[in-house]
Every structure is written in C-alpha cells, then in structure tokens.
Known about the structure:
Order of helices and strands: HHEEEEEEEE
Mean pLDDT: 87
Largest sheet: 8 strands, antiparallel, barrel
Number of helices: 2
Helix content: 10-25%
Amino acid sequence: xxxxxxxxxxxxxxxxxxxxxxxxxxxxxxxxxxxxxxxxxxxxxxxxxxxxxxxxxxxxxxxxxxxxxxxxxxxxxxxxxxxxxxxxxxxxxxxxxxxxxxxxxxxxxxxxxxxxxxxxxxxxxxxxxxxxxxxxxxxxxxxxxxxxxxxxxxxxxxxxxxxxxxxxxxxxxxxxxxxxxxxxxxxxxxxxxxxxxxxxxxxxx
Length: 205
C-alpha cells in the first residue's frame, strides 16, 4: 500500500476492522481447514473497502471524511493587475470535479470564459483535509497546477486553494478562495456556493 493509504480511516475503527477481520478470517480458516493466507485476505478486504465500498454504509462509518465526490458548478470572482498596474476584476462560470476513494481526493477545476470556451484545467497536487472550527464541515487545502495554454498565451502556473465543503441535508456545496504565482501578474479570487449538480465526473462540457 502507498504511504498514508489509510489516512482517512477513523483510527479506532481501523484497529477494530483489522483485529476483528483477522480473527474472523483465522477462525473461518481453522473451522473449514482452508489453506489461505489470513494477511492476504485481510489486505484484499481493506483494499476493496477503500477503493469501492468506502461511501456505502456500513463501510462509510469507518471514515472520518465526507463523500465530497461529484460535479459542482457556480461562479468565480477574480482580480489581477494588468500591464498598466490597474486592477481588473470579473466573474465567470466555474466548474469543479471531485474524484474520490477512501484513500484519495482529487479536484479538477475549469472556468468557462465569456466566449464560451473552457480554460485549461487545474489539478490538485497534494491534499490536506481538516474539520472546520465548528466541527460541522470540512476545509480542503491544496496546491494545484494549471497546465497553461499556448493558444491562449499563458504558461503553466501553480496556485493554492482553500475550499470549504458544506453539507446541509442532501445539499452539498463548495466555497473558497485561491491565489496563483502566475507571472508577471498574480491572479487571486474567490468562488461562492458552487453547488453539487451530479455524480458525473467526466470532463465533458
């Protein structure tokens, strides 16, 4: 398993799963005289839960993070200094696609320009997740890489996003802010109330 593969499990539930699973497999093996590796079956079970079953009850109770996955749509408000040093601001449609397993969370971001074309994609590099101070929601903090576009005339660049995940009943939404190292004019901004619209995680627009 990769490093930090089990980082989103509740530690106490993970210990129960490992000990309980080990005993169950061992007793089954002894009762039926099966020639199987207890360690291999336990590892396969954890991998299956982590990759496929993590969001379904009762397996979801093993994890301390929510199911963030899906497609979110809303508005992005940006600002930057132009070549004359004047502040430029605007608002564009914004899309985030969250792909998730029990061990990994990936976010791809796109902005729809005024002419209807899509920006080059941004993808997170690393991910830190924490509860908000009130313990009701989550903060997702990460650096990202935008691939840039030769057609649109700007190079690849890095940025940082701080995203708040809010779940109220069946409604899920994202809000947050971002900063870039885009040269020569740093861009920054915020997005508010990106609403979950579907489980479709394909990059089709």
